[in-house]
Design brief:
By secondary structure, the chain is mainly alpha-helical. It folds into two domains: 402 residues, no CATH class; 107 residues. The chain contains 23 helices and six strands. The chain has a six-stranded mixed β-sheet. Helix 21 links the parallel strand 2 and strand 3. Helix 9 runs antiparallel to helix 10. The longest helix is centred in the first third of the chain and has 26 residues.
């Protein structure tokens, strides 16, 4: 029955992901990179010689986002593009393989489906970890199952599923690392099979995202100190060797990691952030906000206040201390210490203050908070009331997004209308006035992959002759679509209206960097 509950909840979880995935209306620039770097022969489509100042069909842009029939056996871009970008190649290899199920066209479901499958395993490993933590509790398996499920349907987890990047895979690798290290805690003698599994997981983590190393460093130091205290130098040696071998193999497979981490712009960015204390503090507090909003569905302050009140009451009025046995403490230690280190280093190293950089450990912070709250409740109340209070808090976590009007990151519901308009009645000749400081074209490549004809204008004087030549032989009887930045709007739009004999201008949408207008 307990295993049946896990299966049922995994099915419900998957249905939730599919429903939310169906609502996703747009892709982030980095999601465009996920597809492009997995299959295109260049990092940037803008590097094509014919990209600017030429008319292109939607197939020209969709080629960046999809695998064509003649590219099925060509996996070279997976490696070459990552060499020239800033990430290792494992996730892109998986996405590239999945893209072969949608030959010739882009589909958000390629990436989302990968994440849905990964999250089945994430929930399973979270359940296995929670089973270890709750081992001595009544109905431990049922509690572990329910808490694992809820941790996988917080806004952070749902955002992780619908965001087509490597962070779901990184989350799974961190959880597998924790689980294997819990098994290592339970092992008295050297278990070479277990060390090999740890080494393989480490290899996979390093080849997925360099931030995995933050968690690995934290967990390694815990075990190094543990083995040294217990004078288990043989175990420490073999454990260290397994990690070193994994690192060496990762460098043999992808030697460009050294360049990326220490000499690339991301590596230099981390060093720069370390030198700026005020920026570092702002970044950490912003990530705390993101952890609350997405990881706890906005209820982290409430949960922490309840924990503080109960802890104070238990310490000063009951004169007792929260007791956790040594084995449990060791398990919790290999979760919360590396998670805190990962959180701080991610906040320092992240080029942007957004959820994705801390999302792999959001679920861990959530289960830790609920566990400590539950233990405090047990010190003050009986089993029945402790379960009732925790159930209320978990139910509140599930419904708070609806009450507080919170939604997953990068759902892009507000862009549904513009996508449908440009796919339908406003699928008109489109001009994109490129502005070097106006953001990246990949922010909006999805729209250009559905527009029949478009022109990327760069370094063009907005004279009547040039504008008329651009639209020569184009059917502009229903008007044109213009993408332009704020500083371009006033002057250029009026000029184009005048040159092409249009009288009306309708603002359709403000996108990340560009505004979209229908001139007719």
């Amino acid at each position: 029955m307990k295993k049946h509950l896990l299966v049922i909840l995994l099915i419900i979880q998957t249905i939730i992901y599919i429903i939310v995935g169906n609502y996703k209306q747009y892709i982030h620039i980095d999601e465009a990179y996920s597809y492009g770097l997995s299959n295109y022969d260049k990092v940037e489509i803008q590097n094509n010689e014919d990209f600017y100042n030429n008319w292109h069909t939607k197939e020209y842009y969709e080629d960046y986002l999809s695998v064509e029939k003649d590219e099925i056996k060509n996996y070279a871009p997976v490696y070459e593009n990552q060499k020239n970008d800033v990430h290792p190649p494992l996730y892109y290899l998986i996405l590239r393989t999945a893209m072969q199920f949608t030959i010739g066209h882009f589909s958000k479901w390629t990436g989302i489906t990968i994440n849905i499958i990964i999250y089945i395993f994430i929930t399973i490993f979270m359940y296995l970890i929670l089973k270890k933590i709750l081992k001595e509790e009544k109905n431990a398996e049922t509690k572990a199952t329910i808490l694992a499920f809820i941790s996988s349907i917080t806004l952070a987890s749902i955002s992780n599923v619908i965001y087509i990047r490597m962070y779901s895979l990184l989350t799974l690798e961190i959880l597998i690392t924790i689980f294997l290290h819990i098994k290592l805690l339970e092992t008295e003698k050297t278990n070479f099979k277990l060390l090999i599994m740890i080494g393989i997981t480490i290899l996979s983590g390093i080849l997925t995202h360099y931030y995995y190393l933050f968690y690995l460093v934290g967990i390694y130091f815990i075990f190094m100190i543990k083995y040294m205290k217990e004078k288990k130098y043989r175990e420490l040696t073999y454990y260290t060797i397994s990690i070193i071998i994994a690192g060496i193999v990762s460098l043999i497979i992808f030697p460009y990691s050294i360049q990326h981490m220490f000499f690339g712009y991301r590596g230099k960015g981390v060093i720069s952030n370390l030198e700026n204390i005020s920026e570092m503090a702002v970044s950490i507090f912003t990530h705390i906000y993101n952890l609350n909003y997405y990881g706890f569905n906005g209820l982290m302050p409430v949960i922490l206040i309840i924990i503080l009140i109960l802890f104070t009451y238990e310490k000063f009025y009951k004169k007792k201390q929260l007791k956790i046995n040594k084995e449990k403490k060791e398990i919790l230690r290999i979760i919360y210490i590396p998670s805190i280190f990962f959180f701080i280093m991610s906040a320092i190293g992240s080029p942007w203050r957004v959820l994705r950089y801390i999302v792999p450990i959001c679920g861990l912070f959530f289960i830790l908070a609920i566990y400590f709250l539950y233990k405090l409740l047990q010190k003050i109340y009986n089993e029945k009331w402790s379960n009732i209070i925790i159930s209320i808090i978990l139910c509140a976590t599930l419904i708070s997004p609806f009450i507080l009007h919170l939604e997953p990151e990068l759902l892009y519901q507000d862009r549904k209308e513009i996508v449908e308009e440009l796919k339908g009645e406003l699928n008109l000749p489109t001009i994109y006035f490129y502005q070097p400081q106006g953001g990246s074209f990949l922010d909006d490549i999805l729209l250009f992959s559905i527009i029949d004809e478009s022109y990327i204008a760069k370094d063009i004087e907005y004279t009547e002759e040039n504008i008329r030549n651009i639209f020569k032989d184009k059917d502009i009887s229903k008007g044109i679509i213009i993408f332009s930045t704020e500083e371009q709007n006033n002057t250029n739009i009026e000029m184009i209206k005048k040159y092409l004999n249009f009288t009306n201008c309708q603002h359709l949408k403000k996108l990340t960097s560009y505004n979209v207008y229908h001139i007719y």
